[in-house]
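Continued from yesterday's entry.
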Amino acid sequence: MSAFRPAEKLLAVIVPFESPAPSIDPLVDLVSEDMTRVNAAILARTGSDVTMIPEVANHLIASGGKRLRPMLTLAMAQLAGYAGDGHIKLSASVEFMHTATLLHDDVVDESEMRRGRMAARMLWGNEASVLVGDFLLGQAFKMMVEVGSLRALDILSSAAAVIAEGEVMQLAAAKNTATTEDEYVAVIRAKTAELFAAACEVGLVIAERPKAEQAACRSFGMNLGVAFQLVDDALDYGGKAPKLGKNVGDDFREGKITLPVVLAFRRGSESERQFWRRTLEQGDHTEGDLEHAVGLMTRHRALEDTVKRARHYGAIAKDALALFPDSPIKSALIETVEFCIGRTH
C-alpha cells in the first residue's frame, strides 16, 4: 500500500499590473489628417499687412498648446460620420476664439507667462494683445459664416458672449473670499466649459445629426470643460511650472478665488480665514505665504477634493457618449477625459 502524499502546493506569483497612463495620443492620431488642414487654415488666417498682427498671433498659436478644443470639433464630426469640410473652418474658428480669450485673459490677469513663454502682453504690450485678440475673433466669425451653417454660427457666437460674461463674473468674484462653490462653478462653466461644449456640439450640427446626439455631445464638452478647469485649479497649487506652462501659484498671487481656496476657506478656522483675507482680498503677501496656503489646502483636503470633483464631472462626460456605438474615436474621446484628469499625476 503506497503512502499517502499530500498534493504539492502550487505557488502563484501575483505580478501587479499597471495599466498604461491615459493618453491623448489616440485622439491626436485619429484626427491628425484633418488637424494638418486646420493648422494650414490657422496660418493662412493670421496673415495681415499689419506686421504686428501675425507676430503676436503666431507667438501664442505656435507655442505648443495641445489644440484640444479644435481636435474635439474634428473628433465629433468624425463620430457623426460627417463627410464635408466645414469642420475644418469651424475647428480653426474654435482655436481662434480660444487664442483670443488667452490674449485678453493675460491682460486682465496681468500674467507674465503663457504656455511656458513670455505672455504676448510682456513683449508687445496690453493694447496690442487686446487688439490682436479682437482681430482673431473677427477672423473666427468670418470662417463660421463661410461654412454656411446658421445653427453652428449661433452656437459659437453665443459661446463668445457667454465666455465674456464668465470673464466679467470672474472679475466680480475676484478677491472675494465669500464666493461659494456654486458661484465658482457657474464662472468656470461660462469662462472655460462653454467653449468646450460649443466645440463639441457644432461637429454634430453640421453633420445634421438628431437633437439628442447634439445634446449628448454638448454635455460631453461642458462636463469635460469643467473637469479640465478644476484640474487646472488644483495644479496651480500642486503642479510643476514646466508642466503648467505658467508659474506655480499664479492664481494665489493674482488673488483668484478658485475651488481649492473656496474649500480651504470654508473648512478653516477663523485665523486661517484671516490668512486668506490678507493674502487674497488685500493682496498683502509675505515670504512663505504660498507654502502656507498649500499647507492649509493639504490639511483640509481641498486639492484632493477638487480633483474628486473633476473626476465626477469627467464621469458625466463619459456617460454622455453612451448614446453612440463603440468605435475607435469614441474610445479616444473617453481616454481624453481620463488624460485631462490624469494631468494631476
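--- second protein ---
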Amino acid sequence: MAAPLPTLLEALDDPRVWKSWFARGGASWDPWKAFLRVLTGEPLSEAEHVLFEACTGRKSPPNGPYQEAWLICGRRAGKSFILATIAVYTAIFRKWGQYLGPGERGTVLILAADRKQARTLLRYAKGLIQGNAALRDLIERETTEELELKNRISLEIATASFRTTRGYTVIAALLDEVAFWRSEESANPDSEIVDAIRPAMATIPGAFLLGASSPYAKRGLLYQQFKRHFGKDHSPVLVWHAPTRVMNPSVPEQVITDAYERDPQWASAEFGAEFRTDVEAFISREAIEVCIVPGQYELPPVEGTAYSAFVDPSGGSSDAFAIAIAHQEYSTGQAVLDAVRERLPPFSPEQVAEEYSALLRRYRISQVTGDRYGGEWPREQFRKHGIEYVPAEKPKSDLYKELLPALNSGKLDLLDIPKLLVQFCGLERRTARGGRDSIDHAAGGKDDLANAATGALVAVVSQLSGLAVWIKLAS
C-alpha cells in the first residue's frame, strides 16, 4: 500500500522537504503555520485559535478546508513566499491525475499585475523545488514563465488579464497583489479575471483560489470579499486580515514606526493592512456610462461649428501622446466629444505632432491647448504646421474637478471608446494630510486619453456656462 501523502504542515516540518527553509525563521513562521492549518482544516492550538479570531473576525471554530481564501496582509509579511509554498505543495503532494483527460495538464496558475512581479513568486517556487534533490527530479521542462513537472502538473505565470486565463485546466489559482491590478482592457480587471478562472476550475474537485495583497482603496474585488466574508462565522470563503508584524515579527518595529511618522495613511495600508481612507474613486462607472453614446466612435467636422482641442504630449518613450476635440451643442446644452487619438510608445513626437496638426486643420482649429509637459518643444512642433500651442492654465487635477458636475449631471456626450471608459474609471481622488484633494490615475494606471478628453470638454463646458450666465444677465 502506498504511503499516505503528507499534509501541507507535515511537508513543512519534514526535514527531507522544506524544514531547512522554515527553520531559518524559527518562531516567526508560526503565524503562517496557523493560517495554513486554518486553510487546510487542521486542528488549532489555543494560541492559534486566538490568532484565528483576531485575523478573521470570527468566533466559531474554522470550518476548513477552504476552497477560496483571501490574504489581506501588510508589506513584507511573507505573502508571496507562502503562496509559492502552497503552489509547490499543490503541484507535487496532491494527486490530480484522475481528474485529467488524455494529454491534459493541470495548472497552478500564478497571476500578478505584470510578468516581472509574477516571476518573483515563480522564482520562490523554483527555489523550493530545486533546493531538494528528490523534488528536483520531478522537473520535466523549465522556462522563465513555466515549470512543467513529470506528474502532468505545471506551475505557470500570467499577467492579470481575463484573456490570458482562458484555456487552462486550473487546479489552483494564486493571485498576487490583487488590489493593484490595472488594465487598459477593463475597469474591473480583478473581478473579470476571477470570473474567467472559475470555469477552468469547475471540473477539478478540490481546486482552489487564493488571493493575497496589501490593501489599497475601498473598492475592487479584494475589498468586496473583505466586506462580504470577514467576520462571518460560517462563510465558505476565508478572509485573513493581519498587519505586517503579526504575520512576520522579524520585521523591525522601528521601520514601521518611522513609516507611520512620515505618512500615516500610507503606512496604515502598507504595514497596518488597513484599506485607505484618503483614496476613493473620482467618478462612478455608472455616471460615465450614462454619458456614452453607444456606437458613436467619432464625429466628422460640421460646417459652422466651433471646436476646441486639447493635447497631452509625450516624448515617445513611455507615455502615450493623446489629443481630443470637442464642441458645444447649444440646442441641447451638451458638451460633445468629437474625436480622440492616441499614439502609444515608441513613436516619433515630431511625426505625431504633424499628424495631429492635420487632424486639427480638418476641424478648422488653429489653436490647441495642452499641458505644460516638455517646455518649449510642443509649441515648436505644432508651430511648424501652423498650429498655436497654448499651455493650459490649470493642472489636470483641477480640470478633472471642473468636469465632474457635467459628468454627474449627464451633460456630456462621450464617444464609445472602451479605453476612455477604463481610464475615467481608474481616476482616483486623494486627500493629502493638509486636506487638499488631487485627482490622478492610480499607481500603474494611465490617463492620457482621459486627460486630453477632459481638457477639450472643460473648454466647451466653460463656454456653455459663460453663455448661460450671459443669457441670464441679458434677460
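Residues 291 and 410 are 5 Å apart (CA to CA). The chain has two domains: 8-277, 285-474. Will compare against the first tomorrow.
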